[in-house]
Amino acid sequence: MTAPGRRSSTFTRLLRHGFTDPSAAERLLAGDELAPIRSDPVLLDALGATADPDLALHGLVRLVEVQDGHTAQRELLDTLIAAKPLRDRLLGVLGASAALADHLARHPRDWQALVTYEPQDLHPGVQEFERGLAEATDPVSLRVAYRRCLLSIAARDVCGTTDLAQTAAELADLATATLRAALAIARAAAPEDAALCRLAVIAMGKCGGHELNYVSDVDVIFVGEAVDGADERKALQAATRLASHMMRICSETTVEGSIWPVDANLRPEGRNGPLVRTLSSHLAYYQRWAKTWEFQALLKARPVAGDLELGEEYVATLAPLVWHAAERENFVADVQKMRRRVVENIPAAQIERELKLGPGGLRDVEFAVQLLQLVHGRADTSLRSGTTLDALKALAAGGYVGRDDALQLDDAYRFLRSMEHRIQLYRLRRTHLVPEDEADQRRIGRSLGLRSDPVAELNREWKRHAAVVRRLHEKLFYRPLLDAVAQLAPGESRLSPDAARERLVALGYADPAAALRHLEALASGVTRKAAIQRTLLPVLLGWFADSAEPDAGLLNFRKVSDALGKTPWYLRLLRDEGAAAENLARVLSAGRLAPDLLMRAPEAVALLGDGDGGGLEPRSRAHLEQEILAAVGRATGGEQAVTAARGVRRRELFRTAATDIVASYGTEETPAVADQGALVDLVGGAVSDLTAATLAGTLRAVVRDGWGDTLPTRFAVIGMGRFGGHELGYGSDADVLFVHEPREGVEEQEASRAAHTVVAEMRRLLQIPSADPPLLIDADLRPEGKSGPLVRTLNSYEAYYRRWSLVWESQALLRAEVVAGDTDLGDRFIELIDPLRYPAEGLGEDAVREIRRLKARMESERMPRGADPTLHTKLGRGGLSDVEWTVQLLQLRHGWAEPGLRTTRTREGLAAACAAGLLSGEDAATLDEAWVLATRVRNAVMLVRGRAGDTFPSDGRELAAVGRYLGYGPGHVGDMLDDYRRTTRRARAVVEVLFYGA
């Protein structure tokens, strides 16, 4: 008898054997059911070896209880003690699966299915499972027979008799036998339908790949044909009835539960398409309409039931299309986009527990392997396996994947799939989520052989394998390209030159031979530079491939590395600062402008990092002006001073372009900026501030070089057009007016000569050919245009505007703002023109008609010949000119009464007009959207082509790059143009009403 307060020896032994509720276990062991074997030591040892000893003991007691009489109970218990194979199998299943314990409780004699231990029992195939299901004649008996077969698979699995791959293959073979049995039942129920048609069942997904889970949808496609002499339409109807009945037999819930859902949604047109098609109909669909993912799905197609000859014909007919899918435009991008979409659809609360679909999950391995199969399987038939692990092994053997990488992925995939199996086996429910309950995690960990600290070990191993997959699944595609051009150890496999070129073409490289030369130059050698670049290039190649210009990205990276490769900080920046390498890849592959700016001074790459000297936030005008004026002050002459100012401008243009590109593309950590208007404002403000600071520095340099500290006349620069509106683009000229005022005691002629000299010298210095982009000064908006003097006194402006000013000049002055020089003089100029641009009581009707006439004339005369008016961003329908003239007309008519309209900025003026009730919120949003989009297109064209343009590029790659900048994925250029036309068409309808009064 145990003394009060002391644990019994049985209690202690139960704890030592892994029981978590020893008290309950002690009561169960003390019951009558296990009395004959209670004292046998093998029982406790066997229970302690299971995944969940408490669950196994409870299941055993239930099984003994439901045996039919004392004799049946003794037979079970005697066999359990005497036969170790049965003991391990039965208790192993009971300790891992509550669902199979329930099955045994309902069918007490099914434990005998685990007694046989013949060689053929170790690895059964389809025929053995068909024999196991042979007596099933209805859905209920089929379920019972299915679970009995499943019991033996689970027993071999949990005892380690079969490994992961063998277990998955057995589950697929059992599914094949089950589909055949279900189809036989359906045929027997409708012999007249069976006589009319040939019906083939094609397994897809994991069933087709011979790698099924315990509980998974079984994906199928049906192919039907009429038997000789039968009407095709009636035959297809009959085949559809048979297929539907077969699906219901497997999917519907009966008193014995269900088997698994049969899913036919991978068929052409998905659930909207007919359930059964003829072979010719399938072929026509895949030739004309199929998307890339549908060919990817066909990798796993395998005939499993029904007319196997027809099924084999289906696979043989479609195979050539599958193995040419990699030649489709945007093939890799389509596959990667599909993978991203899967991840994005995972609920945020589940993504950390998602074993299959999350980052570092099973789908990452499967997608990577399938991608490589589609690229190289056309030329190498050894890669055409539907089974992930077999395909991975073949890829490694052929040098398409690094051997070490393949081994690590194989190991990770096996562990993650084994986890998935154990999770599903417990309740036989379809799930890929790692349970949060510690008891569940303990059972899973113990079932995988983790016994010291099951929960901690399970989580550690899971995270480690997921990290391996995350690290390798993208690298898998790119590292062999480096091995193909590197010196490998003897015996190491590598990609052949043809295979390397094949892969580069699939990635979107137009010149794979040049790309291989660049890779060889970057990755060869034993220097620190080469070693770091070998580490970085697999990731960089992926980012380049995500752009419209991967060739340019790789070439530009080589140029930057050639220039900076021996600089320690450059290598350190790319290696240590997470954002820098991705930012650089985005910038180098997004077009010509940013790389051209960077190549002129490669050290600007430091701006792309996170640390000191880095940061992509554009600087303020005050900061820029301070830096430029300081640089001018240190220079010894005017040319040197302006060269320094232009150098700052080049660097800051690069900073702005890089900010714009990274924000538009997004990164792995940060999604693309959704507010397009904010990006337009950022670029317009940054470039305008930079232009103003550059002009201020140039003015200081010219004055100091010619007159010392003081110019004989006060001098101010007035920004006009987009410059005054803070809306400059990358390729915009600086529209300006120059105003001066002689200082006291200075002759007007001398002052005028000095002012004209300043203007001429500023324009010359800012256009001197050099490594820096020129800054063109355009003063054509001055009084009398090109015929008038470049610079006037304030009094001259006053006299001109009082006597000769035209309505278009009042409109142009709406954008006037002081940008450089004498601020007091500039402010007095603004006071002078305010009555012109905001006339008291607004514009008269004659002036309104004149503005409308000028606009109509501009639309008809200035549109370039041959240009598509629906796609011209400046002068086209609903473009910049339409929106800006509409806003400016509202300012001219109502600015005198509405202070909010007195702004030089288009979007601010539009918002103020809306706030004042001059147009509806809907109309304001329509105009704003069109103006922002047109501005973004102009910026994109400059970034991509390196030169300004008002229309979409005609070159396909350039057009795709514009689309990528605007957020359109590969293959969606048509959508971009349609969206642009739709947006601007709506804007034009608003303009017709607000501007033309239609």
Q: What characteristics describe this protein?
A:
single chain; 998 residues; mainly alpha; five-stranded mixed β-sheet; 61% helix
Largest sheet, in brief, is:
5 strands, mixed
Helix content: 55-70%
The value of Rg in angstroms is 38 Å
Q: Outline the low-pLDDT stretches.
A: 1-5
Q: How would you classify the helix and strand content by structural class?
A: mainly alpha
Termini separation? 104 Å
The shape is elongated
Mean pLDDT: 92
Q: Strand portion, in percent?
A: 5-15%
Count of helical stretches: 44
> What is the oligomeric state here?
single chain
Beta strand count: 10
Structure description:
- With 998 residues, this protein is mainly alpha-helical.
- The protein has 44 helices and 10 strands.
- Strands 1, 2, 3, 4 and 5 form a 5-stranded mixed beta sheet that branches. Strands 6, 7, 8, 9 and 10 form a 5-stranded mixed beta sheet that branches.
- Helix 14 links the parallel strand 2 and strand 3.
- Helix 21 runs antiparallel to helix 23 and helix 36 packs parallel to helix 38.
- The longest helix has 32 residues.
- It is elongated.
